[in-house]
Amino acid sequence: MEILKTIKERRSIYNFKTKTIDNTIIKDIFTYGSYAPTHYMKEPWNVKLYQKEGKYVFVEAIISSYKRIGLLKNDKDPKTIKMIESMKSFLLEIPHHAVVYFEKEADPVRFEEEYAAVCAFIQNTQLAAWEYGVGMLWTITPYMHDPRFLEDIGLNSDNVKIAAVMQMGYPAKVPRDKGRKSIDDKMEFIEN
Ligand SMILES: Cc1cc2nc3c(=O)[nH]c(=O)nc-3n(C[C@H](O)[C@H](O)[C@H](O)COP(=O)(O)O)c2cc1C
């Protein structure tokens, strides 16, 4: 079965070609993602795709956030300016950034259900992407937890949570398979 091969062969991608992915292909990939299991058919996932000129707003919001939370200095020191420029160009070179977010639930059980469904959506999407020759990197970054960052990209942190930011593009380099521990170390059969 092709899916079993894809599950094993998919890798997180850290180096992308500059070529962008057509919106129709992106929509196909996320459509496969949306066949993830979802309790009460809530389909809690939402995606904002930053690409082409749209990346500038997103990258500026990241830099502002890093300055606010102290990961970048907020001064005119040439070293700081150089660091900011290299961070900007690194982020702008990634062809697509997909912000995956969902409506927060007040009830912790419901919250977990929604987060779990969104994670299933993300992994389905990564597997579908691989079938299209598209690579992704699942990232969880400090700015995702900065309310002002959410505001800067048009989201209200009172109501929504960002689950992940997915970097996307055609792989320039596919990392080696790091393998996995034996499942025997992770499971037990209880039969009586
Ligand atoms: C919830 C989650 C968050 C992750 N966040 C990051 C991240 O912020 N930066 C990163 O380089 N990789 C991140 N990864 C990717 C893992 O590093 C990667 O899946 C792991 O090294 C195994 O490699 P593989 O996906 O190629 O099998 C994340 C993965 C998951 C599931």
Mean pLDDT: 97
Shape descriptor reads globular
The percent of residues in helical segments reads 40-55%
Number of strands: 6
Spans of at least 5 consecutive residues with low confidence: none
Q: Superfamily at the CATH H level? A: NADH Oxidase
Q: Return the CATH architecture.
A: 3-Layer(aba) Sandwich
The bound ligands are: flavin mononucleotide
Radius of gyration over all CA atoms, rounded: 18 Å
Strand content: 15-25%
Count the helices. How many? 6
Largest sheet: 4 strands, antiparallel
Identify the CATH class. Answer: Alpha Beta
CATH topology: NADH Oxidase
Tally of domains: 1
Strand order of the largest sheet: 2-3-5-4
Distance between the termini: 34 Å
Please tell me about this protein's structure.
Belongs to the nitroreductase family. Residues 7-170 form the Nitroreductase domain. This is Nitroreductase. Its cofactor is FMN. It comes from Virgibacillus byunsanensis. With 192 residues, the protein is of the alpha+beta class. The chain has a single domain, classed as NADH Oxidase (3-Layer(aba) Sandwich). The protein is 41% helix and 18% strand. The chain is built from six helices and six strands. It has helices at 2-9, 23-33, 55-68, 78-93, 108-131, 147-152, and strands at 15-16, 46-51, 96-103, 135-139, 160-169, 171-173. The strands form two sheets. It has a four-stranded antiparallel sheet with strand order 2-3-5-4, covered by helices on one side. Helix 2 crosses helix 5 and helix 3 crosses helix 4. The radius of gyration is 18 Å and the shape is globular. It starts with a helix and ends in a 19-residue tail after the last strand. The relative contact order is 0.23. The model has no long low-confidence stretch (mean pLDDT 97). The site of flavin mononucleotide has 9 residues, from strand 4.
